[in-house]
Amino acid sequence: MPFTISFFVSAMAFPTFVVLLCQVAVFLSLCVVGEGRYSIFRRFKEAQDTKQGSPFEEQWFTQKLDHFNGADTRVWKQRYFINEVFYRPGGPVFLMIGGEGPANPAWMEDGTWLTYAEKLGALCLMLEHRFYGKSHPTVDLSTDNLRFLSSRQALADLAHFRTMIAEARGLTDRKWVAFGGSYPGSLAAWFRLKYPHLVHASVATSAPVYATVNFPEYLEVVWRSLASENTECPLLVKKASDDLVERLKDPRTYGNITKDFNLCSKLQIQTDMDSAYFLETLAGNFMNVVQYNKDNRGFEGVTGTNITIKVLCSVMTDSSLGDPYARYAAVARLMMETTSMKCLDTSFSKYVSDMTNTSWDGPAPIAGRQWVYQTCAEFGFYQSTDSPNQPFAGFPLVYFLKQCTNFYNISAEQVAEAVTQSNEYYGAYDIRSSRIVFPNGSIDPWHALGVTQDISADLPAIFIKGEQK
């Protein structure tokens, strides 16, 4: 299919736009833009937020603290990056939206969006999300300060940034295109929805647009994705998980379990939360690999991208390693070796201590406290084991909701109300807009909350079945 560039230079018929943007979207669905997702309460797959020798220096934009209170005049510095290498006068502006992690300047040098920027003569910008990376609107991460962290404030950040940069650089009449993957994919769609006068089009890759408190479908997709490699694989994972749950009922097994999974300290199970945290941590090995399977993020400095669904299933079907429980433990050790972890910390009490530390340099996983707050205050997305059609056990919805209360004093009822409000505000699956492309893949569990069928002719979905070779 020929590549059309005239659209951005002059008025262009929408079908031609769809051809162009769909080409962009298909490629971006293989290499998801935006940040790695902190998958609710699992460890964040850490990526470096700086790239050695990067010629694109961080820059700072004066941003409003509260866009919805005119009496509040407080401001702060928001980090952004710019690549002008490919820009030609009259060209479009590509805006990469940062998400729930540090903005990585590697994206200013790599990624398919730059291929299209070169062809179209686009100026490329990337704006870091408030409260993530180095963009610190407040002195700490207290719950009172986190009230300024929301998707609505983030969209207003984008709008103000777009307006002021356009005025300063003479880009007001240029066509702006927003890019995002995962949560930033949702923001890309919502930016076009809520500020159509500021952004001409959006590519919303792997974007969960439907907020839901309980999201057991995530693990159902994990089952299907594992089965797509080997039909026995998820069955063996389930046997191993069920076996582990039974062993946890007998404290005499804790010493062996500690050795089998190379835990940092002897396993302590005193409450249901201790058990759920331990089981979710181990399930996270499979959840992370399925979610990021062959996603081409190596240039970001992410470790473990060589571990794929195929690798996991090859371990789980290797009878020479022992029974399914032993193979499950082998997967855990493999993941630790791959990420250079000396041991696995599964202490729930330590996790609570880390997540309630409100300093910017606290011990919680990168952006952990911030993103979990957003799930409690806006989206839910809790990947529970409440469905029978998935391979794990032991971390039900209540396990996640209790953490909202423990970390932020947000009750289960408040979470439910917040989720309802988010869907009312953004429209959930029923987005009423235009010129937004929604790429998703069947392997990615988040497609269950995304747009996988065309909403209309000018809100097309691209659904890629199976993994990309």
Automatic annotation (TrEMBL):
InterPro entries: AB_hydrolase_fold (IPR029058), Peptidase_S28 (IPR008758), Ser_carbopepase_S28_SKS (IPR042269). The keyword ATP-binding does not apply. The chain crosses the membrane at residues 12-33. Pfam families: Peptidase_S28. Keywords: Glycoprotein, Hydrolase, Membrane, Protease, Signal, Transmembrane, Transmembrane helix. It comes from Haplochromis burtoni (Burton's mouthbrooder). One of its GO terms (biological process) is proteolysis. The keyword Protease applies. PANTHER family: PROTEASE S28 PRO-X CARBOXYPEPTIDASE-RELATED, SERINE PROTEASE 16. Belongs to the peptidase S28 family. It comes from the Eukaryota. This is Serine protease 59, putative. GO terms for molecular function: dipeptidyl-peptidase activity; serine-type exopeptidase activity.
